[in-house]
Every structure is written in C-alpha cells, then in structure tokens.
C-alpha cells in the first residue's frame, strides 16, 4: 500500500477551475514551482503601509494625528466594502442585511470610541501649532466618508434641510450636489462664494461623486431595505440594527468628533477656527441638519429631537 497522499481530487478540481476560465492547468502548476512562499509582511505590505506617515512639522504628536486619520480611511474602505455587498446582492433577505449592517455598525462603534485617541492622545499645544501647517486641508475632505453617506441613504436625506422641499428624485444630480448639507460648510453664507477648502475638494472628487450618486441612487441601503418583502421590513432585529447604524453614524460618532474639535479649537490657544475655515459647529452638530439615513424607522418626535439630547 502506498503511503503517498492522493491528490487526484484536488487536481481534478484545479483542472475544472482553469478550464472554466480557459487557462492551461499545467502552466499554473509549473508556476508554483518557481513562486516564493508568502510572508506576512509581503501580504500585508507593511513596509509600504508604515512609510505613508509623512510629517509636515517636527512636533511628535503630528504622527498620532496622521496615523489616526489613515486608520480611519482604512476602516471607511471596509465599510464601503460591506455596503457594496448589500447593494449588489440579488436575493437579499433580512438575515444577510442585518449581518452586514451590524458589521458596519461595529466599525463605526470602534471609530466612535477611538476619538479618545485624538482627544487624549495629543498635547493641545502641539496640535494648535502643527494644525496651521494643514491649512486649508480638513477632515471635511474625506471622500470615502461622503461615499458612505451616498451609499447609505436616498439623496434627499443628505440635502441641506433648507432646500429639501424643492428637490426630488427628478432633480439633476449636478443641482442636488450643490445643495448637499456639507456644501454650506464650504460657502460664505452671505456671498455664496466657495472656500478654497471646497474648491479643492470638488476639483479632485466632484466627477467621481456624481457618478457614485447616480449608481447608488437605486441601490443604497435605504432603497434596498424598502425593496425587501414586507415581512423582512418588519423584522425586529433588522430594524434594531438599522436604527443603531443610523444613530451611531449620524449622532454618536459625529458628536465624538464634534467634542474632540471643541476640546482643541476652543482650548483658548489659536483663533478658534477650523483648519479649512468651515462653520464647523453648524456643519458637524446633528441637530442643525438632522441627517437621518432611514427616516421612516424613527418617530416624528425622535426626528424632531435628533441630536438635541447630546
């Protein structure tokens, strides 16, 4: 009896795999003879990742600031990855939906609690010095966060509260874009002139945003939820998960960010303005814009008092 393992089933499976994509199985097997074994550092690309933190000043706590925001962007990427699976799922049901929503919520729960790293992890004096080297950049310019908003809800729920009555699903995307809630933070409220912060942001991302807005207009999380059978829409666990996600993103996480900004900007050191020059209080605090991804899952009283109790 031979002690040699039987690889026939694996080889047959490989043969089927490569036949399906019109590939020669022998070529791929020969390639294994010359390929290097994978290592952790090659797979994760740690050398590249750890060389992305480039300081603009000599102040040590700037490293905390840079690394923290890069971690946020990686988490945003993971969130968008989960949302895309709901958006593209053909046979969507409550169980799959809830599972993805809870994954996303855990990411935002982590983002919320992590603001203590920003609040307690940097000396106020250092931040108030190196922040001037960031002007006119701002966390406002996180494109991935805007994509998360577009992918989460119908566009009307992201329109500046003052203009929602005049915008509907037939409104051109270019017009709706000019009335998104965060536009107000980048415009002079008297003249309407856009700040350098907003001009630079739009120059880099506007076309991508418009394409993304159109793509997710019919497959954002809120639209996909409303496509579910009535029984699934009434699933208590799914509704609970949706409400948790909505409140975490639009109130809890935002207020953690807001309170961290207050801690530094109103410390008495500096000019009390955000680096990008935005009216950051009215832009950030949820009670002003009432950003709610899934409005029908909240009572009128809950909507009216959105963010008021924080």
The share of residues in extended strands comes to: under 5%
Terminus-to-terminus distance: 74 Å
* H and E string: HHHHHHHHHHHHHHHH
How many DSSP H or I helices?
16
Morphology call: globular
Structural summary, described in words:
The protein is mainly α. It has a single domain (57-304), classed as Methane Monooxygenase Hydroxylase, Chain G, domain 1 (Up-down Bundle). Helices cover 59% and strands 0% of the residues. The chain has 16 helices and no strands. The protein has helices at 8-20, 25-34, 40-44, 46-49, 62-88, 94-120, 124-130, 143-152, 173-177, 196-215, 221-227, 230-233, 236-265, 280-284, 286-289, 300-304. Helix 8 (143-152) packs parallel to helix 10 (196-215).
Give the topology.
Elements lengths: L7 H13 L4 H10 L5 H5 L1 H4 L12 H27 L5 H27 L3 H7 L12 H10 L20 H5 L18 H20 L5 H7 L2 H4 L2 H30 L14 H5 L1 H4 L10 H5 L6
Helix pairs in contact: 5-6, 5-8, 6-13, 8-10
